[in-house]
Amino acid sequence: MQTTISGIQVPDSVLAREVTEVVRDTASELIFNHSSRVYYFGAIAARQRGLYVDPDLLYAGAMFHDMGLTEKHSSVHERFEVDGANAARDFLRRHGIAESELDIVWTAIALHTTPGIAQHMHPVVALVTAGVEMDVLGLTHALYAEEERQAVVEAFPRSEHFKEDIIQAFYDGIKHKPETTFGNVKADVLADKDPHFVRGNFCDVIRQSRWAS
Q1: Domain ranges of the chain
Q2: What is the pLDDT of residues 60-115, one digit of tens each?
Q3: CATH architecture of the domain formed by 14-207
Q4: pTM of the model
Q5: Which residues of 40-78 are buried (b: 16+ CB within 10 A; e: fewer)?
């Protein structure tokens, strides 16, 4: 049975059903539910912003965005975002999706942890990041009606200690290749030159988000 939230459903397509099956069979319940919430929050954001996106592409981007954290798709030397993007591209290519659309989904996944860029790109790219930032960081919490937030979480529950669980999931997925986490080089420049610079901390933002757990 399809879950309808604020008039939004998972696409009723063969592709979307296979995406669901693959992610459910490969990722943990934590990642599956998180990825599902990313889709719904992203689709709601599309309506808020007056954007049209192919729902299959948005769903694929949302559901595969953390597949690089799974043992099956984690490489030795690539960033986990690239691993997830590659997994999605390979999956969609097998289903005959056009190369231009593969590139959109690949980019959406590859950039979902890079702030300040995705919102200026193709709507699928922007909305995957919007869904992630809402579910993990709560950055746009106030833009969603309370009933929308509750409905998404009731359909795809957050674990009791979601904030710590998702941080642990990130750690488990990247701890074997720390060199791939090299970040925004401009922060390194500021840290080198400005004694008063305070580097932002992703984990602190998660813990301080407006989400309860």
Answers
A1: 14-207
A2: 999 999 999 999 999 999 999 999 999 999 999 999 999 999 999 999 999 999 99
A3: Orthogonal Bundle (1.10)
A4: 0.94
A5: bbbbbbbeeeebebebbbbbbbbbbbbbbbbeebbeeeb
